[in-house]
From TrEMBL:
This is Cell division ATP-binding protein FtsE. Homodimer. Forms a membrane-associated complex with FtsX. It is a peripheral membrane protein. One of its GO terms (biological process) is cell division. Residues 2-222 form the ABC transporter domain. It is found in: Cell inner membrane; Cell membrane. One of its GO terms (molecular function) is ATP binding.
């Protein structure tokens, strides 16, 4: 589902953020991406979303070769990928409902279909009763759940997260990871960048470690 073949990414500054990275994440797999600050984790996620383009090598997402993807087709790629950020990136002047509905409104979906999908997504993250509130009224963990509901509302086959538990305590972090696990259990391919080695090792899933832009380890931690 997510394939990197000898991928290099050099920024215009000359900095080589990724060097010769190769891996294959199969459909329905869930894995973590870890590494020191500046190791290249965010860069790798940006290549998957086509926010950045590889300097060398090949990135394939759900059979699409991103090297050959025309700019006008990038929105089709993005619809396949739900993204969760550390800082949620919610709109604080809109309700919970409106925040989650946003990707569907942009897609041009009919309002009655939007209602059904938004409520299904809010139900999955346990926030159905809070749809009329604004995010500011909710706790950090709840805000992250809204971010997750928004990421999955259009049922993407791929879910990416960049430090999704960075601001949460261990209990909430663990709950958020279980949520990702639930989406993975119904077939979504999940890749999560995280510094939280304790949490990752407890999950018993594949971990890929980046160091100075190179993939130094890939496997289930002992
Ligand atoms: N747009 C850019 N232009 C130039 N250099 C960049 C750019 N984006 C990232 N870099 C550099 O590339 C390297 C990798 O950055 P990246 O954000 O991918 O690391 P990271 O592993 O996600 O780090 P962190 O855990 O701190 O978020 C860093 O040295 C960073 O300064």
């Amino acid at each position: 589902m997510i394939q990197f073949h000898n991928v290099f990414k050099r920024y215009e500054s000359g900095h080589e953020a990724l060097q010769n990275v190769s891996f294959n994440l199969k459909e329905g797999e869930m894995a973590f991406l870890t590494g020191h600050s500046g190791a290249g984790k965010s860069t790798l996620l940006k290549l998957i979303m086509r926010m950045e383009v590889a300097t060398r090598g090949q990135v394939n997402i759900d059979g699409i070769n991103l090297n050959q993807l025309a700019r006008r087709h990038v929105p089709f790629l993005r619809r396949k990928i739900g993204v969760v950020f550390q800082d949620h990136q919610l709109l604080y002047d809109r309700s919970v409902y409106e925040n989650v509905a946003l990707p569907l409104v942009i897609e041009g979906m009919e309002p009655q279909d939007i209602g059904r999908r938004v409520r299904a997504a809010l139900d999955k993250v346990g926030l159905l009763s809070k749809e009329k509130l604004t995010p500011i009224m909710l706790s950090g963990g709840e805000q992250q759940r809204i971010g997750i509901a928004r990421a999955v509302v259009n049922k993407p086959p791929i879910l990416l997260a960049d430090e999704p538990t960075g601001n949460l305590d261990p209990q909430l972090s663990s709950e958020i990871m279980q949520l990702f696990r639930q989406f993975n259990a119904v077939g979504v391919t999940v890749l999560i960048a995280s510094h939280d080695l304790d949490l990752i090792s407890r999950m018993g899933l594949r971990m890929m470690e980046l160091s100075q832009g190179g993939l130094t380890r890939s496997g289930v931690p002992a």
